[in-house]
Amino acid sequence: GSGGGAAEDCPEDESPLVPGEGEQGGAPQTVTESGDFTCSGNDVTVQGISLNVGLSGECGTVTIDGSSNNVDVEAAAQIVLNGTQHNVDFGGEPEVVDNSIDSNIN
């Protein structure tokens, strides 16, 4: 027979930051959990500890708060770091404002 047993549910949650319809750009969005998100010219704030966040598309200003976050930014107008010990990789040529302590910015 088929063994019963707990089914392990791992929902893959692809949550884009921008709503599909309606406003584009819109209000700043806040990311408080790890995941991959897509910008459409909007500002994004990453807030937390030890998050792994990927931002694709064109972001406006990306603000990183908290500590020990790993953030990969495909393209942004500006990246602002607050807090401590972030690891940030970015593409393009954003303006980088580093108010943080001991961060690695590539």
Total DSSP helices: 0
Q: Which band does the percent of strand residues land in?
A: over 45%
The ordered H/E elements are EEEEEEEE
Question: What is the averaged pLDDT score?
Answer: 85
Give the fraction of residues assigned to helices.
Answer: under 10%
| Helix-strand makeup class | mainly beta
Main sheet makeup: 8 strands, parallel
Based on CA atoms alone, the radius of gyration comes out at 16 Å
Low-confidence stretches: 19-26
Give a summary of the structure in a few sentences.
This protein is mostly beta strands and 106 residues long. The chain has strands spanning 29-31, 35-40, 44-49, 52-67, 70-81, 87-90, 95-98, 104-105. Strands 1, 2, 3, 4, 5, 6, 7 and 8 form an eight-stranded parallel sheet that branches.
Would you give an account of this structure?
It is a single chain. The protein is mainly β and 106 residues long. It has strands at residues 29-31, 35-40, 44-49, 52-67, 70-81, 87-90, 95-98, 104-105. The protein is built from no helices and eight strands. Strands 1, 2, 3, 4, 5, 6, 7 and 8 form an eight-stranded parallel β-sheet that branches. It is globular and about 60 Å long. The relative contact order is 0.15. The model is unreliable at 19-26 (pLDDT under 50).
